User: Fold this.
Amino acid sequence: MRTALLRLFRQSPFEGLLRHADYIRQSGPIFQLALIAYLDENPEEFEKHHNQVTILEHQGDLVKRNIRGHLPRGILMPMDKFQLIWYLREQDKILDSVQDALHWLSYRKTDIPDEMVDDLLLLVEKVNEVLKAVHPLVSSAESYFSNFSEQQREKLKQEIRLIREFEFESDQVERELLSKILAYPFENSTSAFHLARLVEYMGNVANHAENAGDMMRAMIAR
Amino acid sequence: MFEIILVLGIVAGVYMAWNIGANDVANAMASAVGAKAITLRQAVIIGGTLDFVGATVIGSHVTSTILHKILDTQALTDPRVMMLGLLAALLSAAFWVFFATWSSLPVSTTHSIVGAVVGFGIIAGGLKAIQWAKILAIVLSWIISPAFAGLLAYLIFVVIRRKILRRPEPFLAALKLTPAFLGMTIFIISVSLLTKTPLGENLNIGVKTGLICSAIIASVVGVMAKSRLARTISKVEEEGVEEIFKRFQIITSCYVALAHGANDVANAVGPVAGIYIIYNTHALTEKIPVPLSMLVLGGIFIAIGVFTWGYRVIETLGSKITTLTNTRGFSVDFGTATSVLLASKMGLPVSTTHAAVGAVIGVGLAGGLAAVDFKVVGKITLYWVITLPLAALPCMVIYKILEAIFL
Assistant:
């Protein structure tokens, strides 16, 4: 077979982006279970979920490299390639932050004061909401770049707004929790450091999702 | 001696025609299969049948061109030399096309035959036997035809996006523009069928009458299609738009198949027709008429090529280019076929594949495709540049061997 057309079509970056976003979505409930296991002082269960997230992050990395590998110079796409790579970087950092939070948590067993448990679980909830919101964002973007519909563009903008909203809510809980941690009279200051850093890592999940949303907004700008 | 040359020429011509059907029709039909506008079976039937129709009804102008526009018949007066040269060119092009197919090189049949004929001209009559100014025009058309196809595809997709897809009610917008898009397609198909073709001549239709008739047919079909589409399509919004363009794409697929047959049959039939005329008259005439039987034979073997091997290539390509939705597929098909048919009408042997590549790049530049590799254009250009000497050199060698045997 000799045909020039066969060589013309490259793999759509959205195939990979959707797979990557699916890993992010899968990591949400696992992250939640890991935190609950940590709070329940069940290290085996925690480690099991920690490993699951590590595997997901590794798979996500492979997908990320595959997407980058299929974007050589001279590729024509409906969006700016630099913006797409930047978006991918931010989307990947979401999964990285989930892993970072669990890695950090695994380094030490810290007793979490009862008055912080609810806020921590609320923050986990917010993180999970963010993790769930990424896949619909990518899916809407894929549809938009396929049909350029104004309604689809509006839907996509709504998905971006939703992520911003989640980030704002996550930020509120994060600040509340940090102020409680820093005000609490821990016997060992390492515990305070451990928890404060954990909260920051968890906050990073929403921060990177928001950055990804901002980059998506730039990608669909006219 | 003449009989042997004629038989060998027909065999090589038939092989070239089979190859055009086997490999090149896929480039014309695959976008429609990828966009699911037509099934593989329909693509094979449309490709085979309409390529045949294109070859026999529209094709003759190009066929006579391939010889006249390359060789200066004043410099090559010996009909036996001409006959052997045409056979050498056919064998060389067939060999090169076979090698390219075997090694998956994206080489054009058109470029191979042109390169081979140039090779023969140089070895038999020297550099003066080649009409270099006309060669330059042909080479320029190889650049212009993909660029024009790309420009058309780009413009059509930009219009579709601005005037249809981005509208609040895209389906209604698409319906409103149906007479324009479909009318334009029908108009060009009709013009290509009716003007400067054996069909038009038989019906005594001149250019002016052809244009008027085409405009009337296009307007009637466009308006009728609008009301029919409004009644028959149950989907709305983006899906409805794609459904409308899916129907259009069935027509553009036919259009591409026709253009392909009209343009590419010359690659196989042109030299055979030359050999045949010399065999019959033992002389070179100023203008070589191409017998309809030759075009029919070429058309039949193109169709056989599609039925025997082409379907597999269409299947592979169709599964690869799924990112072409119906709106994109329509833009690509329209750009490709219009460019090829215009070149065909001007008597320029251009490559349908390269026009299709140009059209895909055009839609890609308009931001219509998920990921298209622009660098491929550079590689394809490189291949067509090397095709000329690589088809010309074996032709020279083959000609010398044939000369030693027959002259």
Q: What stands out?
A: The first strand of chain B starts at residue 372 and ends at 373. Strands of chain B lie at 372-373.
